[in-house]
TrEMBL record:
It comes from the Bacteria. Residues 31-137 form the Antitoxin SocA-like Panacea domain. This is Antitoxin SocA-like Panacea domain-containing protein. Pfam families: SocA_Panacea. InterPro entries: SocA_Panacea. It comes from Turneriella parva (strain ATCC BAA-1111 / DSM 21527 / NCTC 11395 / H) (Leptospira parva).
Length: 182
């Protein structure tokens, strides 16, 4: 099963960049939908998740689960990097101060900014509708269900052999990191 590595610092910087582009504050559902669409675009173009987060189907469409937990304040994290820069205020998230951007590459910014530009003026309700149209989303009827990367890749018309190669590469990468203890 394909999985990618979640890096709180990187994800916090990606979210902070989007919040900053939204004048320092954005509805958290809108942020979650834009982030999902960014990750989907990265999967399409690079065969790799930009966030490394685990997608799930929820009633309002696909959600990146760990980011959602950070927004809700229930993340199980060894780091407090997120909370140094981003806070939740009702249904919004706001930028408390700018983080560094050392975990985001120019290529990352290109995808983030291009997807953000497409959806920046959409209300969160329209983004929910758009995400409900994605073929990998399945109505969980009040719960949540995993969206497997294999399913997303299938709907992005990625070859099965390529998906197996991506899985092998990710597993190898995680084993090397474990061996090197980083």
């Amino acid at each position: 099963m394909v999985s990618f590595e979640f890096d709180e610092k990187r994800v916090s910087q990606v979210c902070a960049h989007i919040i900053q582009k939204s004048k320092g504050r954005i509805n958290y559902t809108k942020l979650l939908k834009i982030l999902y669409l960014i990750d989907r675009e990265a999967l399409k173009l690079w065969n790799h998740s930009l966030t490394g987060d685990t997608p799930v189907s929820m009633d309002n469409g696909p959600v990146l689960s760990r980011i959602y937990n950070h927004i809700k304040g229930v993340a199980s994290s060894t780091s407090n990097y997120w909370s140094q820069f981003i806070s939740t205020d009702g249904y919004d998230v706001r930028l408390m101060r700018e983080p560094e951007v050392d975990e985001i590459s120019p290529a990352d910014l290109e995808i983030i900014d291009s997807v953000y530009e497409i959806y920046k003026d959409y209300p969160y309700t329209k983004l929910i509708d758009i995400c409900h149209e994605l073929p990998e989303w399945v109505n969980p009827n009040g719960s949540s269900t995993p969206i497997y990367f294999e399913t997303i890749f299938k709907h992005l018309q990625k070859d099965e052999a390529l998906v197996k190669s991506i899985d092998f590469e990710q597993q190898s990468h995680q084993k090397v990191k474990k061996i090197l203890n980083c």
